[in-house]
Design goal:
The complex is a heterodimer. By secondary structure, chain A is of the alpha+beta class. Chain A is 44% helix and 16% strand. In chain A, a hairpin with a 2-residue loop joins strand 2 and strand 3. Chain A starts with a strand and ends with a strand. Chain B is α/β, with parallel strands linked by helices. In chain B, 37% of the residues lie in helices and 14% in strands. Chain B has eleven helices and seven strands. A five-stranded parallel β-sheet of chain B has the order 2-1-3-5-7. Classes of the chains: A alpha+beta, B alpha/beta. Chains A and B meet through helix 1, helix 2, helix 4 and helix 5 of A and helix 1, helix 2, strand 4, helix 5 and helix 8 of B.
Amino acid sequence: MNKGINVKVLSRVEGDGGIKVYVKNNKVEQVLVDIFEGPRMIEALVKGKTFQENVSLVSRICAICTVSHRYASIKAIEKALKVEVPEKIQLLRKLLHLAEYIESHILHVYFLALPDFFRKPSAIALLPTHKETVVEAITLKKYGTELMKLLMGRKIHGENPQVGGFGRIPTNKELDEFAEKAKEYIPQLAAFIDVLASFEIPDYCERETTFMCCNPPNNEFGFEGDSILISTGEEYPVEEYKKLTNERVVPHSYAKRSRYNDKPFTVGALARLILIGDRLTGLAKEKFEKYYTEKWKVNPLYNNLAQAIEALWSFEQIPELVEKIKALPDSEIVEVKNLNGKATAAVEAPRGILYHSYEIKDGKMVNVDIITPTAQFLDDVEEYIRVAAEKLIAEKNEETELHLEMIARAYDPCISCSCHMVKLIEE
Amino acid sequence: MWTSEHKPIVGVFGFSGCAGDQLRLVHMEDELVTLFTTAEIKFFHMAQSHQEVDHVDIALVEGSINTKKQLEELKEIREKSTFLVALGTCACFGGIQYLNEKDKAFEERFKHVYGSNVKKEDFTVGEAIPPQPLCNFVKVDAMVPGCPIEKDNLMPIYTKLIKGIKPQKYPAPVCVECKLEGNDCLLLHGIPCIGPVVSAGCGAICPSHNLPCVGCWGPYEAANYKSMLNKLEEIGVDKETALRKLKLFGGSKAEEELEKVIK
């Protein structure tokens, strides 16, 4: 008999997608991660807008990675127009980016991924049995979103970060509060990582793939860089991003798809820790060394643990970073004098490399190319689902759909950024 | 409406947008547990596993309608819900993706992004249509604009709704909140702020951060665009720039109102 799997709506992800697995004679014929999210075509509508307007518009591509979009956009514009900003501004942006990592990773690990391990529909459904964990999740996430609010003006799509600086610089007192709280939350999150690492990770979705991430400067760990590291040992400047992504259009998705050397690849927390995890410091380094195994290289479900370690690292950076920021003088928004130029910038969004490539003429956007992490890893998700579906169908697993959804969810896809869900289809 | 004897059934649905309005619900950390326990949230893909629902008392709907599939789903939500709330600027006015729709900008953008040899009907995930606000297709019972919505403009409506009380509108421009914050008017300093024609509800955040309002809450219901254009001209903003600024987040309503004024 021919069977199929159809996970109609991929839930606990951002945006609208689904997974279809076509099965014939117990063999998987095709896997499609459908992206239903309607096309908004932001790259086209920002043409002719000023670079400041562009920053406001492109940050609306996605709510969860609004900071990463805003950051990449500001970086690309400043690179193109040769705007130099004071160190305080650079460090405040870095702090804001760490806040987004805490917000996004905590949201994903605790609220979106964790309920699966208990077979519950949501984190709220865990309240009766795991109240302390849920309260901890809410507290840690609130830390991230409140720090974003301080620096952006509000929790999502704040306009405070601008090309050349900030509308309002936070006071030392405001920053101190967050430094103190970070110290308080570090041991809590470190203890949670031990719990998370104790969950059994199934081995039905193992296969080799390629990993990519930004190479942060000074051989440090971090979430930005001017070149891209690849697990093949190659390294390319961000300007060559097209060679690394080769975007194409597929009929089952309004998100475009990417391949490198005609093969799917992975970006995100797992890729970063595999490629530059040896640069971690502090407790995050300890946890990484304790839990990292060769299995991480073949199983995307380890992404949840990788994200938790990155969230810990982010918390650990904040007290020292706040001290540095406090020691530097405030500055007004730098005036932009040169209005023409071209540049590409990349930052690591929590779910992977995000490219913004711009051409600006007379202060207005002429060409805009944006490649989001989800558009890069969707092909890889389809491949892992194929491998898993074959194994799960062969062993007649009763939870096949759940397991396939868990794979897609582990990538923390951002469907608005690119497009969302799973389905078994009987032919 | 419904009686307050049973917990109302709430569905949260998302169409095209950044999912920021749904995320803003999830970001109400202090109210999150109350949000999920005072009402029966039966449909909320971002935060919980998929459920089939026959009927919801309150439908919170985010995003603009950008595909034929979404349009069918919106009609189904309308049929199955008692009170439908458009959540966010995209659902209320079409959002940034509506920009210049009056000039048929959609077709051109589609070609630019997907290539001229890709046809809209080639996609198997619902044929793309020019983005539209919900009210262009179905009856909308309440609008909560915002990019994204803020707790302070959703909660007065939501708390009334779950008690079965019909909510009131939020009829003020950003200027009212800006005065309450005690800010100096940026327009008086020659900075092109469009707060006078934009819905309040954000707390006048941008002017409070020394930045002009970009208009992300969409048009204020009784906006005087003529006077706004005159003021912008007076401080030296050329007409093209002024119109672009007013349309950026203004969606269908701004384009309609501006068309009248220009004529």
